[in-house]
Design a protein that fits this description.
- This protein folds into four domains: 94 residues; 122 residues, no CATH class; 31 residues, no CATH class; 63 residues, 2-Layer Sandwich (Herpes Virus-1), CATH 3.30.40.
- Helices cover 62% and strands 3% of the residues.
- It contains 15 helices and four strands.
- It has a two-stranded antiparallel sheet.
- A hairpin with a 5-residue loop joins strand 1 and strand 2.
- Helix 1 runs antiparallel to helix 3, helix 7 packs antiparallel against helix 13 and helix 9 runs antiparallel to helix 13.
- Pfam families: CTLH, zf-RING_UBOX.
């Protein structure tokens, strides 16, 4: 028999003892309660009912039934002693699980395979991707062609080549890529100034239909570029230097392309696997500290949420949340936010506490009243 089976058998024996003790306790409790009820009924029969209101008569009945009440209390204590013992045995058996969380989590094999495939495509590891598809027997990813094209553009941008990125943005023709297209064309102008001279850059600004279109509504920025040409190449100590700062501008353009490209496919900019790994690395020190503090606490309970805030940065927040202005607690599925008649929002539990037994209650922010039945739940996406 394995250790796990032995531990399980011990807990089952404890549960069986509790079942038997509870059964016996119920008989004892029912007997003692019947005895007390009988005494009270006799008192009502032998005496006028109104006399029971007399303080001395009530005290007499309490003293007379003190022994049954003591027996009930003792029986309850014995029963809870068995339950407490079970809790302590569970703490011993599952102590390591309570400290370190679930040791084994079942993952959907297909989902995990898709995540790894997407991760490899993001990183441009196409050979490894093809091997994984072949060995796993899965189908080709819908993002294969997209990432192939995207990785080619990323490679060009790292080599300061803009043609493929500009063509990609022009082919999309959506408002969501307008800012990217403008930044790429502006970077082309700056690149021409630095490599081929001012005249070539001016001709590009005049003759490029895309640049003319993207310049609409950006008169101030176009003026800055034009003014910078008048003092080129002496821009280092001027307010125009940011336009020619290649160490910042090229990485910024690259990141903007990755962001827009990801949004065009409704996917995350960064790899899901890399994001989870990075978030875990940032959260691990705090989790270790939390584990050290709660290691010897038998009251610790394993739940999906831990009672501390793990702050790992805004870039790892993907879901909106709402803090109730009354309870100062973050709402969740068990305590969702609700909309009041006035338009203000509080948590459902706070609303129920304010309602109590009333049909209406006032908003905690303004004097408008809301009916208890008019509390639609809100869902933040």
């Amino acid at each position: 028999m394995s250790i796990t089976q032995q531990e399980g058998s011990t807990l089952l024996k404890d549960l069986e003892r509790i079942r038997k003790k509870t059964k016996i306790s119920n008989k004892v409790l029912n007997g003692q309660l019947d005895q007390i009820i009988t005494e009270i009924e006799e008192a009502k029969t032998n005496n006028d009912y109104s006399q029971l209101k007399d303080k001395l008569q009530v005290q007499y009945l309490l003293r007379k039934n003190e022994k049954p009440l003591t027996k009930i209390k003792q029986t309850n204590n014995d029963c809870y002693a068995y339950i407490s013992k079970l809790g302590k045995n569970m703490d011993k058996v599952y102590k390591k699980n309570l400290q370190y969380g679930q040791e084994h989590i079942e993952l959907d094999q297909n989902v995990l395979t898709e995540l790894i495939k997407t991760h490899l495509l993001r990183d441009g590891e196409f050979e490894a991707y093809e091997t994984l598809v072949k060995e796993s027997g899965s189908v080709d990813s819908n993002f294969h062609q997209f990432f192939t094209e995207a990785q080619s553009i990323v490679k060009d941008l790292k080599e300061k080549k803009l043609d493929s990125a500009i063509q990609w943005a022009e082919n999309r023709g959506k408002k969501s890529v307008n800012n990217l297209l403008y930044e790429l064309l502006k970077q082309r102008v700056i690149q021409l100034v630095q490599t081929e001279g001012i005249n070539v850059a001016i001709n590009f600004m005049r003759n490029s239909a895309s640049f003319q279109e993207q310049s609409q509504g950006r008169l101030y920025e176009i003026c800055l570029i034009t003014y910078s040409l008048l003092i080129w190449p002496n821009v280092e100590n001027t307010k125009y230097f940011y336009l020619y700062d290649n160490e910042r501008n090229w990485p910024r353009v690259l990141n903007l392309f990755l962001e827009v490209a990801a949004k065009s496919q409704n996917i995350l900019t960064k790899s899901e696997i890399r994001t989870v790994f990075s978030a875990g690395c940032l959260a691990m020190p705090k989790l270790i500290k939390y584990n050290q503090i709660t290691r010897n606490r038998s009251s610790e309970v394993l739940t999906n949420d831990i009672p501390i805030d793990i702050e790992i940065g805004k870039e790892y927040k993907y879901h909106s949340f709402f803090v109730c202005p009354v309870s100062r607690e973050v709402t969740n599925s068990d305590n969702p936010p609700v909309l009041l008649k006035c338009g203000h929002v509080i948590s459902k539990l706070s609303a129920h506490k304010m309602i109590a037994n009333k049909q209406k209650f006032k908003c905690p922010t303004c004097p408008v009243e809301t009916k208890g039945v008019d509390l639609p739940e809100l869902i933040f996406i």
